[in-house]
Amino acid sequence: MERVGEEETGTSETREYWAVPLLKLLGYEPILQVKAEVIDGQTFAISHRAEEIASSEDINPSPPLHVIGCKLSLEQRSPSGRPRLSAHGLLQEYLNRTEHLWGIVTNGFQWRLLRDCSLMTRLTFVEFDLEQIFNNENFAEFGLFYRLFHRTRLPDGIDDVDSCLLEFYHQEALQQGGRVRDRLRDGVEEALKLLGSGFLQHPQNEELREAVMRGELSEQDYYRQLLLMIYRLLFLMVAESRNLLLDGEDIDKARIYTEYYSINRLRALAERKSYRREGFQDIWQGLRVTFSLFDESWRGQLLGLSPLNGDLFGSKSLETLDSYAIDNHDLLLALRHLSLYENRGQLRRVNYAALDVEELGSVYESLLDFTPKIVTYEGIYVFKLVTGSDRKTTGSYYTPPELVGQLIKSALEPVIAEKLAEVSRSSSSASILLANPQKGKNKDNLGTNKDNLGSETLPPLSLQQQQEAALLSIKVCDPACGSGHFLLAAARRIGKELARIRTGEVHPSPEPLSQAVRDVIQHCIYGVDYNPLSVDLCKVALWIEGFCKGYPLNFLDHRIKCGNSLVGVLDISVLKEGIPDGAFKAVTGDEKKWATAFKKRNKEERKNIESHQLSLFDNLEISLEKYAQDWQALGKIPENNTDDVKLKKEQYLSRHSDKNEGWWRDYSACNLWTAAFFMPLTENNLQLLPTTEALHRLLEGNKTTTSVVKAANQLAQEKRFFHWCLEFPEVFEEGGFSCVLGNPPWERIKLQEKEFFASKDEAIATAKNKAARTKLIKQLAHTNPTLLQAFEEAKHDADAQGKFIRESARFLLTSKGDINTYAVFAETVRKLINSDGQVGVIIPTGIATDATYQNFFGDLIQQENLSSLYDFENREKLFSAVDSRMKFSLLGISGKATQNTNFSFFLTQAKQIEDKNRVFQLSPQDIKLMNPNTLTCPVFRTKADAELTKKIYQRVPVLENEKADAELRGSLGDYPHQATGHNPWGISFMAMFHMSNDSHLFKSEAGEGLVPLYEAKMFHQFDHRWASYDDQGNTHDLKLEEKMECDRTVQPRYWVDKIEVENKLAGKWDKEWLIGFRDICRSTDERTFISSILPKTAISNKAPLLISRESNINLLSCFYAYLNSICFDFVVRQKMGGTSLNFFIVKQLPVIPPDWYTEEDIEFISSRVLELVYTAYDMKPFAEDMGYSGEPFIWDEDRRAILRAELDAKFAKLYGLTRDELRYILDPADVYGEDFPSETFRVLKNNEMRKYGEYRTQRLVLAAWDMMGY
């Protein structure tokens, strides 16, 4: 290989004399691939396979091995331009596009092990540099190479990719990563407590202790200083571990920093217990010098270090702690906790170079839930971190990267693709114009570069420059950004695309990729969070990710902000309408007298203003445009050195303060408008409460009471109002963000008493019930009035936020019922994007299936804005701290209409989204077809389930359609049958006796004039005697011999006066029997829709009644039989998202209408219904209404199974199903195989297999189908 010339690639020599022989020693039998593989129109010239494996396909299924010449780079394309990708990029792309998981790429010197990582945005691999290993005689590392690259570690072929040793190692590493994160969190928690107590206890820090004691330094501010110190250490540990700080060419300067100033030096000291002597504080003084090397001073330049400056290393950022001392012992012990963690009984060094920034972020973010406390024990100050009994773990915050990756793929990548497509279209148009200039005389100049004044046209931008500009114009936001997990992923993905364009490489090398990510963070990334500590943490994460040698830290204050994303003005035009009267509704702590007075006053003021002019002001849009221009100019300031960053910060502060008169006026106006919802309506605030007149005067430039404005602005700071249009005017001038990503909080907007008192009063927090807790809270008036006041203020704040959400008109679609933050965040993010934008968020699936949010989801459907919804069950603990039964979704929303939406349900792993059987498409038309009343989302396990259910709905109308005929015919297109006869069976629902509210009517013993109270558990399909109570109040199923007794009746738990029953049914139902169904059921039960004809008696509310206007009882028996058919049950299971069969679900089920049944159909069905129902004398009234006067039919299990099978086959035919479709309904595995991801009647099948040794229902139904000649 050394003899290969400089102009040669050395491919043949590398393969023949080195790589292939070494591979054979590693257990491979490499086979040269003569023919390139073609996938999706792209060629992949992978050089070798692990060995020859016979296959029915043309492609060898053994693992791919790609060997190139020793003179070629793994990361860069050949200068000739062929092949189209670098060697690394070629193999990575191949793995991403095929079922192969693992592969090897080498140029003889560097050997890389690659895994499929289609959702990753960075180069991810294990590399061994054999040249360096041999030169350094590092045989231990070669031994590791041998063990890891040996043939036995890779899969044999495609079929065992998930079970090979490498995949086992990979999955084990992922699980261990979660454990390491928890250990790191514990270490950081200990470090914070040690530092906090260490500063407080040092003898020289009397002034610090006095400041704390007098309240001049709050516990929260002290905690923030400690966190900032930890963030500095974290940043430097990561930067040093990744060799990002030092100039490698100046060895002397690098040595001086490493030996005397580096954090790594202190880590080494901390790990040596013998060094941690007490009584000295010189290490802290030295650490302060290290920090100063990275501010804007000259010190760092002496060592070749570029100043980082910014908020993290600014000279005043840590000014509180800078003034005090800490003992070496405490500081080094804290560093030890940051540097080491315990794993399986051994201490291991934290490898900060390998840890993802978002993993570190989740560790630190989990600490932000603590409440800092400074207490004294016998005169000694101790810093504590207090939390409640339900402390959140790191897993609460850590969104698995595979979920983040899916949202990047579904929400951000379409934006990237569209931006680049616009450039291509623009370039094509420009080419046409250049060829025919006359065509473009009245068109905008395309592909040109104008200065800000537009007075001079600069040379046209190249295609690459246009593509770069397009990518850097993308605006991505996370409105609840936390530690910045989604923002980091977005920055990497856009950065990767930017680096691709700049380098021409599909997988760019680290240096251009880092620069691109830094540029993206500077231009594209926005975030908001309510917690200021989270905002700090997000900035640190972005600084680490975007750090490049020789550059200062990015300025982020204008993009990463602290505020309440849900409270404030989103659209500034709302000010035109004045303050809503609903702002003055009284909540906890308000005085109703003053609430009523101010509501009346506000209404009168608005009327008075409106009588003189059409709106409060007319020039708001112009001022917003001016702000947008200012912010755009701010964004153009480079960040190449500390002077640039300093200028940018000064410019931002001058624009974002009272120095900018116009902006400050509008900011104060937004605060007035929002403060009206939050300011306590009490006599003490009479002179401070903002009303519409005060808002109007301020906007008109007239004199406004200074105290009112000042109070509103102060309240805005306290409550962290966030006015989107004023904080990011450059974004909203263009209609909104390009993409919004995130995992917003899932919690009720209501003060949770146990959580509030968890860190404040343990007795109240752990009270055995609410009554006991309420009693203890009342006692606070005497025992701790300060805490009581804090509780009442917190309760007022929570109620006021609820009032804002309900009354501000900002949340028209999600403000009903108990408000949950995930729902109002969903409505917010939808409004944050522009007309071409995309949303990708993780929220509970209830947003799509719960009736509470049907207005929001229905509007998404009506406007055709739903792009995707992937539903997960947390059974495999994707979120470790969340209940395994919790269902959440990756929700995609588009700013423009989309014709088809991707859906998938019951997922447990992100990779299942790639399973074509699990993912299906529904159009808005399809959802209107299946759920016309609520427009909520049907739930399907597979594409086959969806297609079959859709086919049924295309043929069969719903039970009751609540929409008007004209509206329906317009929206249902090809299925007008859904609009004919809104309720053809004339069905209404009745819940007769509520088990709680009507319990006073229930008697525990039988008596004259009393009738049994039937409960849902007492009946089943075609069986009104399923279960009975005994004298002890326990239920038991009736035995076969008991059911064969025609005079046997069931025993209820309660009885009710017959007159009460008659009163309930008067004017609604005149038969001596009833049709009921079970309200409580699940899609995974043996059967889901369980209906029965019952004697006329009292019925529990959990067994709702179906009251029909149909007078033909034989025809009505067809309706009843249909409800118990297996085909109908299949559809019901697709519509069940919970355990309650609510009326709105039943109304939207497909039900064969009366006029579909022929006389032959009615005779066939009703005769079988009669035999199945009339098995006891108490059902004689039903038999007589059907024209039958004989004796009851003796219960015969085998005969009944045949009758039911015949009914099931009959209804399948009426549905228009094929035999294979019926087979699928009975058991999908019978059609698609045992590994098919759907199930229909698994429990029924399993029960029958145990009882009969066969799936009897399946055999009988298919036999009936065949017998009837269908």
UniProtKB/TrEMBL annotation:
Comp. bias (Polar residues): 445-455
GO MF term list: site-specific DNA-methyltransferase (adenine-specific) activity
Catalytic activity: a 2'-deoxyadenosine in DNA + S-adenosyl-L-methionine = an N(6)-methyl-2'-deoxyadenosine in DNA + S-adenosyl-L-homocysteine + H(+)
EC number: 2.1.1.72
A single BP term in Gene Ontology: DNA modification
Record key words, sorted: Methyltransferase, S-adenosyl-L-methionine, Transferase
Native organism taxonomy: Bacteria, Bacillati, Cyanobacteriota, Cyanophyceae, Oscillatoriophycideae
Type II methyltransferase M.TaqI-like domain ranges (all copies): 523-766
Start and end residues of each stretch annotated as Disordered: 437-458
Name under which the protein is recorded: site-specific DNA-methyltransferase (adenine-specific)
InterPro entries membership: MethylTrfase_TaqI-like_dom (IPR011639), N4_N6_ade-DNA_methylase (IPR050953), SAM-dependent_MTases_sf (IPR029063)
Pfam families membership: Eco57I (PF07669)
Native species: Crocosphaera subtropica (strain ATCC 51142 / BH68) (Cyanothece sp. (strain ATCC 51142))
Segments crossing the lipid bilayer: none
